[in-house]
Amino acid sequence: MGAIEHEAYLKFSKIPFDSIRQIMVRTTSAGSGGVIEFRRGSVDGKLLGSVQIEVNGSWEDFQDKVVDIEATTGRDDLY
Asked: Distance between CA 11 and CA 66 in Å, rounded?
């Protein structure tokens, strides 16, 4: 994904949550920063984890962030 705006989302279908405990995101922000949330089942589904994205003043200086995800089971969509 090249850029995100408020209220934007990605959907990953049929994720096997039994084996997921962390998600890594690679981010950068020359804009206003923000928060990325990870939700189960829908854009307003159960919040599994979130990460704060700080402004670093660059669109090319990426930072890896690891997000701990609440333990859950079964397959479902990840937003």
From this structure: 19
Count the neighbouring beta carbons within 10 Å of the beta carbon of residue 76. Answer: 19
Q: Which residue has the tokens 């995101």?
A: 25
Integer Cα distance of 9 and 42 in angstroms: 10
Confidence (pTM) = 0.86
**Token pair listed for 13:** 């279908």
CB atoms within 10 A of CB 74: 9
Q: Which amino acid is at 24?
A: M
Tens of pLDDT, residue by residue over 11-47, are 999 999 998 999 999 999 988 889 999 999 999 999 9
CA dihedral 31, 38, 75, 12 (to 10 degrees): -10
3-state secondary structure of 17: helix
